[in-house]
Write a structure and sequence with these properties.
Number of helices: 9
Number of domains: 2
CATH architecture of the largest domain: Sandwich
CATH class of the largest domain: Mainly Beta
Order of helices and strands: EEEEEEEHHHHHHHHH
Structural class: alpha+beta
CATH superfamily of the largest domain: Regulatory protein AraC
């Protein structure tokens, strides 16, 4: 008798699943300016949310499923009356599969439903028991969910390294508080202004001016969290011409005024 066997093997890109049930009173701000460590799925049970990254904004409402990939710089604002409630699955990948695609940050309407909420709640409850068999069952439910959501995730081509873009980002981050014009930035990068705008639009989906404003807002948020300077002084330190424009820009990127953000940050 001839033995005939076939071996199938495929890494599923997950070393650990972290499950959490989060509740925030009234409002919450999260800043991943250094880059998100792990990719995650979330389900918003109550409240509203806004995810912002490199000029892209994702608005979330009660009952929405969303995905945030690892590595991206982003911030989120969560508001609720009286509170915000959500489930979050963090996917830790210590053994990456180089062949796996990268997916874009997104709201996933097709699975924003009560069935998905029940799935998240069940997985959380099973993990919360602390029992090994229940955790194994929870992992099985997660993979069922992952199989359902995978067709709705949008593959995103990895951003290729661009010396011009890297030079521009470094210059902006080091000089964000100064009022340089785009011609100066383009000259620093040895390209035309039109070429620079094209690179920013294609690679980041934003403009040099908007990116500079995003960096200024991130710097302002750091001052608001850690210092006691006045709003007027922070606006000046971060390169804004007027406090009114600072408030307008800060709210555009975070959904909060500087004063609202400061009051949340010191809780």
């Amino acid at each position: 008798m001839t033995e005939n066997s076939t071996l199938y093997s495929k890494k599923l890109c997950m070393s650990e699943l972290r499950v959490s049930h989060r509740c925030y009173p009234n409002a919450h701000f999260y800043d991943a300016g250094a880059g998100k460590i792990h990719s995650s799925f979330g389900f918003l049970v109550r409240g509203e949310g806004m995810l912002s990254s490199a000029g892209k904004t994702v608005q979330l409402r009660e009952g929405d499923l969303f995905y945030i990939p690892e590595g991206i710089r982003y911030h989120s604002v969560w508001t609720g009356t009286p509170d915000v409630e959500l489930y979050v699955f963090e996917i830790v990948s210590r053994r990456p599969d180089d062949g796996a695609p990268s997916y874009a940050m997104a709201h996933i309407p097709a699975l924003s439903c009560k069935e998905t909420e029940d799935c998240f709640a069940e997985i959380y409850r099973r993990f919360a028991t602390g029992e090994r068999i229940e955790k194994i069952r929870a992992l099985g439910r997660y993979y069922e969910f992952y199989a359902r959501v995978l067709p709705y995730l949008v593959p995103e081509a990895p951003v290729k390294q661009s010396p011009i873009l890297n030079a521009a980002l470094d210059y902006i981050e080091q000089n964000a508080q100064t009022d340089f014009d785009i011609a100066t930035l383009a000259a620093h990068c040895c390209v035309s202004e039109s070429r620079l705008y094209h690179i920013f639009k294609c690679r980041l989906g934003t403009t040099p001016v908007r990116y500079r404003n995003e960096v200024r807002v991130e710097n302002a948020a750091q001052y608001l969290r850690t210092g006691d300077q006045s709003i007027d002084r922070i606006a000046e330190l971060c390169g804004f011409h007027s406090t009114a424009y600072f408030r307008e820009t800060f709210r555009e990127f975070t959904g909060l005024t500087p004063s609202e953000y400061r009051s949340m940050a010191v809780r």
